[in-house]
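Pasting two entries for a bug report.
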Amino acid sequence: VQLQASGGGLVQAGGSLRLSCAASGGTFSMYDMAWYRQAPGKERELVAGISSSGSTYYVYSVKGRFTISRDNAKNTVYLQMNSLKPEDTADYYCAGNPKGVGAYIYWGQGTLVTVSS
């Protein structure tokens, strides 16, 4: 399974970006998917997750600003990020957790999001 993330970039505070993660080589609809991020000097953190059934989870710091969604027909998961803050600056990674595995074992490459103040 390969995950290809895209959509990062430089944006001013208050702006928006949409990240995409396209999956290939597996049964995407059976995976729980998530977005993680890692800022310089910090540990990687789970930002948002979406189960195979569509249930979502958000870390408190992004609730109300970020929206995770998936399109199983396109094998793609999205992260819509609004009202961006400088503290959202990080490398963002998508990850896949196949049903029954219980862990995110598939990872895409990072896409850098930089929010200027």
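Entry 2 (this is the one that rendered wrong in the viewer):
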Amino acid sequence: EAQLVESGGGLVQAGGSLTLSCVASGFTFDDYAIGWFRQVAGKEREFVAAIGWSGASTRIGDVAKGRFSVSRDTGKNTIFLHMSNLKPEDTAMYYCAEAFGGSPSEDFFEYNLWGPGVQVTVSS
């Protein structure tokens, strides 16, 4: 069964850093781009970052530019979201998702497999 599982969330003070992990299983990890999105209750899911199948190309959303980066460890079937200079407005549930194709996309509809999410809370 194909699945994604996020981890690494938690409570952090404003200005701090956190790295989220997304472990993939049950599918050929190297063939697909992986994206990170976040959502606050009552709001739409928001694009954060994505990385292409080879790791050579990335896309960073406006909410994350200059503060977040994304990487992948093919040997461990894992994608990382490195977050720094966190702000209270970064508080959200963070989800990783597998894209239909190999190129990173900001479009929610380009993703077909989602993890259950992990909570990130940034205190002021």
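Dev reply: Rendering is fixed now. As a check, the viewer should reflect this: The chain is about 0% helix and 50% strand.
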